[in-house]
Amino acid sequence: MTKNNVIDLFSGAGGLSQGFKQAGYNILMGVDFDDAALRTYGHNLKDSIALKADLFDEETAIKEIEENLNGNTVDVVIAGPPCQGFSLTGSRDINDSRNKLYVAVVHAVKHFQPKAFLIENVPGMATLYKGKVKEQIINTFEDMGYNVSVTDKPLLAADYGVPQMRKRMFFVGFRKDLGYDYFTFPEPTLTPEDYIGTADAISDLPSLVDDMGEENIPYFTAAQSDYQKLMRKNSSTIHNHIGTKHTDEVKWVISQVPEGGNHKDLPEGVGTSRKFNEAWTRYHSQKPSKTIDTGHRNHFHYKWNRVPTVRENARLQSFPDDFEFLGTKTQQNKQVGNAVPPLLAQAIGEKMAEHLKEGKVNDK
Q1: Does residue 185 form part of some domain?
Q2: Per-residue pLDDT for 91 more than 90?
Q3: Is the pLDDT of residue 44 over 80?
Q4: Which residue in 83, 128, 208, 230 is the catalytic one?
Q5: Band of the pLDDT at 277, cuts 50, 70, 90?
Q6: Active site includes 248?
Q7: In a domain? residue 134
Q8: Is the pLDDT assigned to residue 132 strictly greater than 90?
Q9: Among 15, 182, 214, 317, whose Cα sits 20 to 30 Å from the Cα of 122?
Q10: Would residue 289 count as lying in a domain?
């Protein structure tokens, strides 16, 4: 069976691409402007091109993508553009605004005319400008000949087997002229009672209590959950599991945060340097983690008095263990935090693949 060809815009390290690869797609390339993220992308998605291109400059970027396709057609465009700088000038004119990052996706879809596209973004997109931005995106692609579906409410990663309470919204469009109807998003595969907790995700990884760890170490313990077996499936080595050196004071403060607690649970006068919502948050072993962000200073291991390693956060994002992050530790944390969880992307990709089989070219 012929696989559908995919290009991934604003690919970052490749969370969406990895998920769609797991769903059986042929990933032609990832496009981004972040050198470290592209190195990670190319290192892991070895059959795909990691293309550095400025998607703010849509015409040049489209030309560079075209030159690197080697004659391949683009069946699906996937993208996770940031939403900074979104302005609004009208419900049907996405081009007449500062929405440069979205315009890049619009131009790519207009140019390549894929059978389908997917756009991922943060939940706040749904209510930005009282919902008018969401309406503008839908209208823009509908006017280009696509039936566009959008998540009624943000999809929760934990519902699809990811050990993390991360919420994201998605736009998915299918070409009308090829006979495609509107897309229906996949149903959750887990109920809240079945969510994967952080212990089931990371308990097999070395504690790093007595040392900072080192790169590329073997597994010292057997997998202790089905999720760990899944993450370890194609790997014999642990990458990116390097600890962070904390001061004695920081370790002392962390030690006083109960499992699942945060700064509100600290004694009076302790940990006063950080008092915002997510500060001094300790994971709960039996619950999914909070949203993994691009830093790593506010969340702590459910058991050990330290911040999670890049590998632990990658596990909580559902990156398999053979997916190795490159760059400095700061760059690696950013790559992990910015990514779409591969298992969530896989769930949507598999449902899109079913939908792609249903379309047929009209005889007109």
Answers
A1: yes
A2: no
A3: yes
A4: 83
A5: low
A6: no
A7: yes
A8: no
A9: 182
A10: no
Instruction: Tell me the average pLDDT of the chain.
Output: 90
- Full domain range(s) for residue 346: 5-189+341-358
Residue 328 lies in a domain: no
- Give the pair of three-digit tokens for residue 91: 């419900």
Q: What percentage of the chain reaches a pLDDT higher than 90?
A: 73
CATH number of 351's domain? 3.40.50.150
**How many domains is the chain built from?**
1
